[in-house]
C-alpha cells in the first residue's frame, strides 16, 4: 500500500493518539494532521495556498478521520461546511472521509449516505489494525 497524508479531526486526544499509533504501526502515513474540532479543521483546510506551500506533497490530506461529537463545531456541521468548500475549491475533491466515532446510532451511521466523499465508519471501541487497514484499502 502506498503511503498518503492523513488528517484526524477529534476532540479526544487519547483517541487521536490511538489512531496515530496504529497508522504508524501500519506505516501508511506520510504526514498526520490533527484538529480538535471541526472549526479548526475547516480553518486549516480553507488555507489551501498556505498549506500547499508548507506541505507540497501532503496537502490536502488524502484520508480524513472525523469524529461526530465535538465542541465548537461537531462532525455533522463540519461535513455541511466542507461540502460547500469542495464546491468552491475542487482541489479538495480527492479527500476521502471515514467517520471515526464512538456513536453506534443508526442515524449517525447513515451520515455516510448523505455525502459521497464519506466512505467508511469506524466505531472507536472496535478500532484494530486489521479493520483500519481494511477500511483504508477499500477506499483508496
TrEMBL record:
What are the residue boundaries of the Response regulatory domain, all occurrences included? Answer: 5-139
Positions of modified residues (4-aspartylphosphate): 67
One Pfam family it belongs to: Response_reg
Q: Which GO terms describe its biological process?
A: phosphorelay signal transduction system
Any idea what this protein is called?
A: Response regulatory domain-containing protein
> Which InterPro entries did the record assign?
CheY-like_superfamily, Sig_transdc_resp-reg_receiver, TCS_response_regulator
SUPFAM superfamilies from the xrefs? CheY-like
Q: Which Gene3D superfamilies match?
A: 3.40.50.2300
Keywords for this protein: Phosphoprotein
